[in-house]
Amino acid sequence: MAYLTIENFNKSFGNTKVLKGINLSMEKGEVVSIIGSSGSGKTTLLRCINFLETPDNGVMMLDGSTLFNSEQNYKDSEKILREKRLNFGLVFQSFNLFPQYNVFNNISLAPTLLLKDKLKELKKQLKAQKLSAKEIKTRINEFKENEKKIIEQDTFELLEKIGLSDKKDAFPCELSGGQCQRVAIARALALKPKILCFDEPTSALDPELTGEVLKVIRSLKDEDRTMIIVTHEMGFAKHVSDKIVFMADGIIEEEGEPKTILENPKSEKLKAFLHGVSEKDGE
Q1: Which CATH architecture has domain 4-99+171-280?
Q2: Distance from C-alpha of 168 to C-alpha of 239, rounded to nearest angstrom
Q3: Each residue's pLDDT tens digit, 153-171
Q4: Cβ(255)–Cβ(243) under 8 Å?
Q5: Where are the domains of the chain?
Q6: pLDDT of 282 strictly over 50
Q7: In this predicted model, what pLDDT tens digit does every residue of 49-58 receive, in sequence order?
Q8: Under 8 Å between Cβ of 152 and 112
Q9: How far apart are CA 69 and CA 99, in angstroms?
Q10: From CA 144, how far away is CA 141, in angstroms rounded?
């Protein structure tokens, strides 16, 4: 069984059909790049996978568990949605860092907020055991301090991974676009998602800053992380991907190994897309 399976995803906004029966699967540790023209449905698919949009129809399974099934007549609570979103980390093209927090706090914020939920749950469990108030307080404090140390250590390790250990106290306004995007990647990794997703991670960057972000993504591939990357960087997609998916008009028009897709396309739409990309890049 595939690690991630998407079956018959459909999504409309009003009378506009954006996704028209998307079927996609990927293995653990695989990198899948999604390419296609603007308006083809790439970002909407990514947002549906991350539970930022709800498909009108379809099924999604991850690691053997059903995360979404449109045929089940229920609506997830916000708490359950948050839990499901934790399976995925999403890096936006516009960074979305919190300007009031420094780099360290931007990265550690989500795990710190999640810790509050863990503490509430632990308190309920300890009360159910009918422990004394003093014992409950002691255990909660011990757990809290231990978790805070783990979050701090994890954050320092992520800073080192993205090459920004010296910028831990800097604020987003003091960073370049490439540095901001690297912080956004670290922030997405902080909650240890099963799948890391990128939505055009270099589109907001100047060409000279693109390389530093792509280098970080390549290093993540070397760690066998499972990733879905919506990108317009064909050369990068070719070298980092295990599979490339080409979307057009809300469907998957063609998919396969990077060399086959980029050098021997079968679909006329894919041929036209690649020709347009080549002309844009001056090739």
Answers
A1: 3-Layer(aba) Sandwich (3.40)
A2: 31
A3: 999 999 999 999 999 999 9
A4: yes
A5: 4-99+171-280, 100-170
A6: no
A7: 999 999 999 9
A8: no
A9: 37
A10: 5
